[in-house]
Amino acid sequence: MKNSRKDAWTNDEDTILAREVLRQIEEGGTQLDAFQVVGKLLSRTASACGFRWNSTVRKTYEEAIAAAKKRKNDRRKKDSGPIDAIDMRVMIESIKLLYSFAEGEDPRVTDLKKVKNKLENENQQLVSKIKTLQEKFEEISAIFKS
To answer: pTM higher than 0.85 for the full model?
Structure first.
């Protein structure tokens, strides 16, 4: 006489588990989500479903898993087509509008512009000093060479 466990998994339960995991994979969900759904449906813990999947059922469905992942990736590629030129223009205008709004509202932007202007002026003065010093150096070099 065969003693089977009271909580043993049936073939139907394995099929339910596999279908839900494959559906989750294809739709971009996680295996954990599938384990929770199946656990509630079969009155088992998500951990028990995960253990059953990884220890037994997964091996039977390797090809189906690969096919589900491929369908998911194909759908993603199809959904992420090229952006229309009109959409791109609208996006650019929206970004410009947001930038101009932020520029006028945020005092940090104003402060940074002041610092930038100050540094540009300082840079121009230093460039001018370098030019003057180079000219004087050339004059002195010419005097020593003669």
So the answer is: no
Overall number of domains in the chain: 2
Q: Are 24 and 33 contacting, i.e. CB atoms less than 8 angstroms apart?
A: yes
What is the total residue count of the chain? 146
Distance CA 63, CA 18 (A): 12
Q: Is residue 73 domain-shared with residue 123, that is, in the same domain?
A: no
Asked if residues 41 and 16 have their Cβ atoms less than 8 Å apart, the reply is yes
Q: DSSP letters along 80-113, please?
A: S-PPPHHHHHHHHHHHHHHHHHHHHH-HHHHHHH
- pLDDT, one tens digit per residue, over 29-54 is 999 999 999 999 999 999 999 999 99
